[in-house]
Design a protein that fits this description.
eight-stranded mixed β-sheet
Length: 604
């Protein structure tokens, strides 16, 4: 605030739909990457919080002041956060000593070496004079209900996030009377400096809700002083470019537009940190160029959330952008930790699953089907001749199986499950097999383990003779071949316009139709476990994840949800692919439930 003139679900809830028979596995708490946090910021919740706190006149001697403190404390406790009240006395209105209260939320890091503060002042003023006179009209929606709302929203989102370092949210009292709360906090820190973790980052939020130029595309100013403060502001600029490219973020250094000693942008709680040289502090504000503040109603009874006509006076988008930016910079500096959704599994298994399917589970990606599945179904040790001690750890998902090459460690591979189920040759080593009957599980659609439920669908055994034929010639024609449950081939030329062969695989000698091959090329949101971040790229490598085709594509009749329909099916070494024309876009091509099918075949 310019005194003299003037940032999962509900992130997500994980419901285990499958059984993982490993001791100690339970539904984990939610956790977020920086992108997860940013995506969950709610403009509506921010508006609601501003509305709630601006009901109270929060000037320090007004009755609403303590009521607002109680409201803020209760909201933080509702989020499951532990609240500390730092009580102190301050001289206000020139002479009178008043009991003031800083509200502190301490979120401990997992291996902290320093602290990062996100701050805002909680009091308000009804008049542009110093010291102010309290008169029950200090609604302070923008100054500083907007900053309070951002810290409350950050508290809601941070409650289940893990960081290496500590993060503190601090609501300072008495800012309108000369930064009393922040000055007291800093003085106590300096007195006990040798027994406390050092303060590294301070992001102060004050007056960040008013649309100064009347549009919804506001500039957020990161106000700094030379040195580490300016370096932090500029580091924030790089982060914003990467994570929030549409946001207008500008670094302002004190003295850029006004004489250094009288620059109005210095007047808020960050000044207590600047003067004491504690941490790297920056100030987020909606305006930097106006010597009397861009909000014409700050420090007046008119500083309300709504205009007289019932329209919002403050900008929910701007407040949401500030929340995202504060979360981004503060969270980045505190070093977010990657969350293990399946902590009892070997790390390589989860890393392999995470690339394509973690974005679906967390909501970072939508409009496509699972590559592996929601969660592992079974984690077991299976005999394998070449593995260390003759066995290896494997994990079954709905869509496939993963195995570790060295038993309980090593790289992750995906077995040739479809080859095994169609041939009946269960692989027990690189060159060791156990002969069984081919799988009688339906390759697509509803399960067929109950007589009459889905008897029309071909099984893996139905494809045995087709797969045994081996290679065919390249073919660029339309796909009209059909296969029934007894393995009998035919043609349905009415389906031919829906798929055409476009790619020939010489390694196995089979053609891939366009609906599948084009799907192999899709790009989308993926998760990088090494950096604990989401990015855009190829969702999977089709050769390693799916393998080569072991037969041509066939139209089959199967029941899906009890209703018969035509589905195009092609068997690959590791996976079965289906194309259902009636499915919504993004779900027309899907992975068959090969992991479920193989587990049923192997262990029934």
């Amino acid at each position: 605030m310019k005194k003299y003139a003037l940032i999962l679900v509900v992130y997500l809830s994980i419901q285990w739909l499958c059984y993982l028979p490993v001791a100690g596995v339970a539904a984990p708490p939610t956790n977020a990457t920086l992108q997860d946090l940013i995506s969950q910021v709610s403009p509506e919740k921010l508006v609601a919080e501003v509305q709630a706190v601006s009901r109270f006149s929060r000037c320090v001697s007004d009755t609403g002041h303590d009521l607002a403190i109680t409201y803020i404390k209760n909201r933080l406790q509702e989020f499951g956060l532990t609240v500390e009240i730092q009580t102190f006395s301050g001289y206000v209105e020139g002479l009178r000593e008043t009991r003031l209260q800083n509200i502190i939320v301490h979120k401990p890091g997992t291996n902290p070496t320093q602290r990062h503060l996100l701050t805002a002042h909680l009091d308000s003023s009804p008049i542009r004079m110093f010291p102010p006179i309290c008169n029950e009209q200090a609604y302070g929606a923008n100054d500083n209900g907007s900053g309070i709302a951002v810290l409350l929203e950050i508290g809601r989102l941070l409650k289940n996030v893990q960081f290496k370092d500590d993060i503190d949210l601090i609501f300072f009292d008495g800012e309108e009377f000369g930064y009393l709360g922040s000055h007291y906090y800093v003085s106590q820190y300096l007195q006990n400096r040798n027994t406390q973790r050092p303060i590294a980052t301070v992001i102060n939020l004050d007056m960040i809700g008013y649309p100064r130029d009347g549009t919804t595309n506001q500039t957020l100013y990161a106000i700094s002083v030379p040195g580490s403060s300016n370096e932090l502001a500029r580091e924030g600029s790089d982060l914003v470019k990467n994570y929030l490219p549409a946001l207008k973020y500008q670094v302002y250094t004190i003295g850029d537009l006004f004489p250094l000693a009288r620059d109005p942008n210095q007047y808020s709680d960050q000044r207590s940190f600047w003067e004491s040289q504690v941490g790297s502090a920056i100030f987020f504000n909606e305006d930097a160029s106006d010597s009397s503040s861009g909000d014409p109603r700050y420090h007046s009874p008119g500083d309300k959330l709504y205009q007289a006509d019932g329209n919002l006076r403050l900008d929910a988008t701007l407040m949401a952008d500030v929340t995202r930016t504060a979360l981004l910079i503060g969270g980045y500096k505190a070093t977010p930790l990657s969350y293990r959704f399946f902590p009892t599994l070997a790390q390589p298994f989860e890393n392999n699953w995470s690339r394509a399917d973690r974005p679906l589970l967390t909501g970072a990606a939508t409009g496509r089907s699972w590559l592996w599945g929601l969660a592992p179904n079974h984690s077991v040790s299976e005999a394998y001749t070449e593995a260390t001690s003759g066995s290896r750890q494997v994990v079954y998902f709905d869509k496939a199986r993963m195995e570790l090459t060295k038993g309980t460690s090593g790289s992750v591979t995906n077995g040739l499950l479809v080859v095994e189920m169609t041939s009946g040759r269960q692989q027990m080593g690189d060159n060791s097999f156990s002969q069984r009957e081919p799988s009688r599980v339906a390759v697509a659609g509803d399960p067929n383990d109950t007589p009459g439920l889905n008897d029309i669908a071909p099984t893996y055994a139905s494809f045995k003779e087709i797969v045994a034929r081996g290679k065919v010639a390249p073919d660029s024609g339309a796909v009209a071949a059909t296969l029934d449950a007894k393995g009998r081939e035919n043609y349905n030329y009415t389906l031919a316009p829906l798929a055409r062969n476009v790619y020939y695989v010489p390694e196995t000698g089979h053609n891939i139709p366009d609906v599948f091959f084009n799907w192999f090329q899709i790009q989308g949101r993926i998760y990088d476990s090494s950096a604990n971040t989401y990015t855009d790229g190829s969702i999977f490598d089709w050769v390693s994840a799916i393998g080569f085709p072991i037969g041509e594509a066939y139209w089959i009749r199967t029941k899906v949800g009890g209703a018969e329909q035509d589905v195009l099916v092609q068997l690959f070494e590791r996976r079965t692919l289906t194309f259902t024309p009636n499915n919504p876009n993004g779900f027309k091509v899907e992975m068959g439930n090969v992991g479920l099918h193989y587990y049923k075949w192997r262990y029934s």
